[in-house]
Amino acid sequence: MQSGAVSMLNSLALTDAVLCLVAAGLAARASYGAGYRMAFTLLAVPALLGFLRFSGIYPLETWHPLFTLLSASAALPLLAVCVVKPQSLVATRKQFAIIFLGVTMLLGLLISGLGKFRIYDQAVGVLSMLAILFALVKRKEHTRALGAALMLLGSVLFVTKVSVPPWLMPGDWLHIGMAAGLLLLASGAMTQADAAAEPIVA
After folding, report:
1. Of 34, 64, 12, which Cα lies nearest the Cα of 170?
2. pLDDT of 129-160, one tens digit each?
3. Which of 47, 48, 109 is nearest to 74 (CA)?
4. Is 2 among the domain residues?
5. Structural domain span for residue 168
6. Does residue 83 fall inside a structural domain?
């Protein structure tokens, strides 16, 4: 039993670390617009907290679930706006991205956090990924659409609690799907230079 627990701990810590490195690396790229960078940053935070928690370095039993909730209810919707409406004010202007994040984070805290209605952040996250997938398929951006599909697949495997003991736990699928999906999704993301060259639509 102890060996299985150690394997689960190590796999979750490892895949969370990979997701954190991917999201943080994308957030650090100045070529991406404000909306993308803020979404990537908010996705990196729970991954970092998860690594600290599951590795045993610094267990954060409250903060990790909180920021996981916020990433689903705020970061993924912001990412969806950036993909679906890449020239919008939310996607290209820092102040509007902050306002969007503030509103969606508050809703997530009130409904899923205080209200304990956890289906809200899960539904918002899935709907955001579906919106991204449909938009990219419609635009025939197949590589980026594959990224969105991997994110969805990882979420489905997590929710259905698919595991490959002792190597992969349900949470690992979510981390792997998100990391791979973000890399593909970011491969053709609109840069700040692209956004500045085109008209902004509110």
Report:
1. 12
2. 999 999 999 999 999 999 999 999 999 999 99
3. 109
4. no
5. 8-196
6. yes
